[in-house]
Structures are given as structure tokens and as C-alpha cells.
């Protein structure tokens, strides 16, 4: 009699363990799907806490930017982005572009805990060569440990994708990304100062419009590490750039799109430019020309001529301006950009074309272009 009872007990234990394993394996995917559903198909719904629409902190001038403090997240603002780009060369002799972007998007103006947390995180990682690219996106919600930002020291993560530093200034740092068919393990260190873009970190999209953001950069970075691409290991090293920006209008829309350039010039300077496109074909350009000795030149709309030289059709049918002319006569800069790989459209929740470039002209250099809102 006793021996007959053992079999159903074992069966019950086996089924219980099997159910727990299945539940544990699917919970993470269910949470990701829920976060993706909340983001919606290209629009971000606002979850209401009580009555009324979400109201975020305004972006105002004369705010003091503290780099060590402001690498942290600012949940009272709608959007936030940490954006890393690297132009590196592998021990196989090939040139590689590496991108890692993490967005924080508030789904409401309240500060909840756990499942009531209003923050959603989106990360994109990309590796590219002149004829191939690897990319993946992760989406997670805040408040439940899957994604977030911590300080003392700085740590940003989404699932097992991790940016970590031994201080709050992001440098030196390590970036670790593991995706289906590629991985990134890079260590970056600075060889020059941080740069406050715009008016001491206050970046306007137009003189006559209220849309603005807070923005600073670490353009003087050296990086080295290991890429794993389709099972093959490549040791790489080169130059990198990290941007940090927060505000309420960092996602392209029907009324705002932009072209952003991050360029390391041969003479050691770093050139950052953003051209905003507003309705009625109104354009506005803002930029900085910085040196590793700490000198920074603000480039305003009247200083620069920036225009596309050629457009190119992509496999997805889009026709994009991928070759550009940059002229800043006041500082004797005349450049033409050239992409490595034109098929760099990222069809993710925050879609964009972004890829590494070469520049020629008054001097040479390397960098990145990002086209948002096309």
C-alpha cells in the first residue's frame, strides 16, 4: 500500500518542479511583452495616476549641470538617453562601428515603486562593418529589477546588458552586451574633459521655440576590448564618445526630426553638430568644437553650412541623405562625410539610421551620423 502511494507523490513533485521551471523561463519574456505593449506601436500612452494628463518638469536655462550627479536618471522629465559610439579597428585589420544606446521613457508623471513604477527602458546595441551589421533591442520596465540606473558608483543595466564604472563620472567604464549572435566587452577611459553642449548644457532646438534639453558629452574617450561575432573573437581598440541628454522632446515626432554628427578630427578636436528640422522647413543648427585642453567653441546657426550631398536608397525603400557637406568658414573647416555601410537603418521602437563615417576635406576624421525622424 505504501509503495503504491510513492508514485503519485513523485509525479506531483515532478509536475510542480516542471511548472516552476516553465514559469521562471517565461516570466521575463512576459514582463518584456507587457513593457512593449505599454509602449504601443510607435506611440507612448500616458498612464494616469488619478486624474489629469502627465506634467513633466520644464527644461529651463540657467540650470547648473553637475556631471558626476547628472549621469544619474531624472525621472521628472519625460525622456532621457545615454548614447555611446565607438570607431575601432580589429586585430583582423577591419574597421568596426559600435553603438550602445539606452533610453528612459516615463509613462507617467508619478513616482511609483514595483509594478507602479512609471519608467520604461529601451536599449539598442549595434556592431557594424562595411558589409555587415549585428544589432538587437531590449525593452524592460523599471521598478522590478530588470532595468535601471544606480549611482555610487554608476551602474546602468537592462537584463544582462551592463554599463558599469567605479565612480559617478562614467569613466573609466566597462560595457558588456550579450546578444543572440554577437557580444561586446569594452573598457573605455577618458583622455580629455567632459563638454557641456549649448549654453552650459542647455541645448535649444530653435531660438524662437520652447523645446530644449540638457546635454553634455564625453567626446575624448579611448576604448579597447573584445567583440564576439558569429562565434569569432575580435580584439579591437579605437576612439569612443558618450553623450548624456534629458528633457521632454528627445523622441522624433511629426513636428521634429534631426541630423546629428559626432566627429573625431585628425587634429585631436571633437566636432558635435545637430540640425533640427521643424515644420514649414525651418532648420536650426547647434554645435560645439572642443579640444582636449578644455577649450570649447560654441557653433551657432549662423556659423555653419550643413547640407546633404547625396541621397541613397535603402533596401527597406527609404531614401536618406547619407553623404553630407559640413562647412564652418569661421574656423576653416570644410568636410565631406562618407558612410561605411548604408544599410544601417535600425527598425526598433526608436527607429533611426545610425552608422560610422569617415570625413575628408580640410582634414580627415572618423565619427557617426544619426538621422532621426525619417
Automatic annotation (TrEMBL):
Give residue ranges for domain AttH.
Answer: 79-248
Q: Which SUPFAM superfamilies match?
A: AttH-like
Q: Which InterPro entries match?
A: AttH-like_dom_sf (IPR023374), AttH_dom (IPR010791)
Q: Which PANTHER family match?
A: BLL1000 PROTEIN, HYDROLASE
Question: What is the protein's name according to its record?
Answer: Carotenoid 1,2-hydratase
Amino acid at each position: 500500500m505504501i509503495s503504491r502511494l510513492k508514485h503519485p507523490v513523485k509525479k506531483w513533485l515532478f509536475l510542480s518542479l516542471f511548472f516552476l521551471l516553465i514559469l521562471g523561463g517565461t516570466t521575463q519574456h512576459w514582463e518584456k511583452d507587457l513593457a512593449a505593449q505599454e509602449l504601443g506601436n510607435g506611440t507612448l500612452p500616458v498612464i494616469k495616476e488619478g486624474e489629469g494628463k502627465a506634467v513633466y518638469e520644464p527644461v529651463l536655462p540657467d540650470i547648473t549641470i553637475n556631471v558626476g550627479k547628472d549621469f544619474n536618471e531624472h525621472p521628472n522629465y519625460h525622456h532621457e538617453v545615454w548614447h555611446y559610439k565607438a570607431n575601432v579597428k580589429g586585430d583582423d585589420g577591419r574597421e568596426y562601428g559600435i553603438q550602445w544606446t539606452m533610453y528612459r521613457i516615463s509613462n507617467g508623471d508619478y513616482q511609483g515603486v514595483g509594478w507602479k513604477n512609471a519608467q520604461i527602458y529601451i536599449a539598442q546595441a549595434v556592431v557594424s562593418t562595411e558589409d555587415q551589421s549585428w544589432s538587437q533591442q531590449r525593452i524592460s520596465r523599471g521598478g522590478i529589477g530588470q532595468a535601471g540606473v544606480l549611482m555610487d558608483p554608476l551602474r546602468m543595466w537592462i537584463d544582462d546588458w551592463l554599463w558599469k564604472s567605479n565612480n559617478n563620472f562614467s569613466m573609466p567604464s566597462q560595457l558588456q552586451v550579450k546578444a543572440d549572435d554577437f557580444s561586446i566587452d569594452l573598457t573605455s577611459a577618458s583622455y580629455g574633459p567632459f563638454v557641456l553642449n549649448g549654453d552650459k548644457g542647455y541645448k535649444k532646438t530653435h531660438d524662437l521655440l520652447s523645446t530644449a534639453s540638457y546635454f553634455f558629452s564625453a567626446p575624448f574617450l579611448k576604448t579597447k576590448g573584445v567583440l564576439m561575432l558569429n562565434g569569432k573573437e575580435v580584439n579591437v581598440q579605437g576612439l569612443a564618445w558618450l553623450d548624456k541628454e534629458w528633457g521632454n522632446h528627445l523622441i522624433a515626432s511629426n513636428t521634429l526630426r534631426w541630423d546629428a554628427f559626432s566627429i573625431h578630427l585628425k587634429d585631436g578636436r571633437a566636432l558635435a553638430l545637430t540640425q533640427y528640422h521643424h515644420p514649414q522647413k525651418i532648420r536650426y543648427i547647434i554645435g560645439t568644437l572642443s579640444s582636449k585642453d578644455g577649450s570649447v567653441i560654441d557653433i551657432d546657426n549662423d556659423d555653419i553650412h550643413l547640407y546633404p550631398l547625396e541621397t541613397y536608397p535603402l533596401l527597406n525603400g527609404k531614401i536618406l541623405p547619407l553623404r553630407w557637406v559640413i562647412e564652418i568658414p569661421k574656423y576653416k573647416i570644410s568636410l565631406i562625410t562618407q558612410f561605411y555601410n548604408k544599410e544601417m537603418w535600425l527598425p526598433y521602437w526608436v527607429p533611426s539610421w545610425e552608422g560610422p563615417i569617415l570625413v575628408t576635406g580640410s582634414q580627415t576624421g572618423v565619427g557617426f551620423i544619426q538621422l532621426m525622424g525619417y
